[in-house]
């Protein structure tokens, strides 16, 4: 049985003061549910959020990490540094990192491996851009991203990874993939995972959809057979909107 997992990705939004105000308001609205809930926040807010959400059932995640243990990597943070402040999750390979910060399939794979040696659970983002979809290459491209990301990772570790399917053309555009398109790609990702591992392993891996998820479309998306969760950008910045999605 896969447990639904709804996560907010704040990207580069909110100060520490704003994050604390969100946490207070969101905690008051949140009732322990069977839905796993997490907020992926910028680095400076992580420590406050971990302490604000302590004991609430709401998890906290980072948006990026370096794969090396330590070294001359100005501006980067290691897995150990994130473990020290007790974050639960870390995003890997978000399309904005692939697009603007040189993240490649190879660094995504190294980051997954580094996180899997720790207690921090990775959320791997994959997704095609508009041109790739229009050329009919979406499934091939996403399949290749999944294969490259899981290269050299055994089935026991693979089960700890959540996969987030985020079509680039649906991110921040207000343009959502239809529930059928999203479901179809999530099914395809699970088929790739079955090829890489086996049916049992693939069945245990949680697959989220992300791209303009909002209170108005969350139920329909979450009701799709192959979609186990959502990775929410814009709508996770407002407690009232995000709680509606969590309670889909
Ligand atoms: P939006 O929900 O703002 O489209 O962002 C999706 C996303 O990129 C989450 O990681």
Task: Provide a quick synopsis of the model.
The protein is an alpha/beta fold and 248 residues long.
SSE map:
Blueprint: E1 5-9, H1 16-29, E2 36-40, H2 43-52, E3 58-62, H3 79-84, E4 89-92, H4 95-100, H5 105-116, E5 121-126, H6 130-134, H7 138-149, H8 155-158, E6 162-165, H9 179-196, H10 199-204, E7 207-210, H11 215-222, E8 229-232, H12 239-246
Parallel strand pairs: 1-2, 1-8, 2-3, 3-4, 4-5, 5-6, 6-7, 7-8
Helix pairs in contact: 1-2, 1-12, 7-9
The structure holds 1,3-dihydroxyacetonephosphate (13P).
1,3-dihydroxyacetonephosphate binds at residues 9, 94, 166, 171-172, 210-213, 231-235.
What does this molecule look like?
This protein has 248 residues and is α/β, with parallel strands linked by helices. The chain has helices at 16-29, 43-52, 79-84, 95-100, 105-116, 130-134, 138-149, 155-158, 179-196, 199-204, 215-222, 239-246, and strands at residues 5-9, 36-40, 58-62, 89-92, 121-126, 162-165, 207-210, 229-232. The chain has an eight-stranded parallel beta barrel, surrounded by six helices. Helix 1 (16-29) packs parallel to helix 2. It is globular and about 45 Å long. The two termini are 19 Å apart. The site of 1,3-dihydroxyacetonephosphate (13P) has 14 residues, from strand 8.
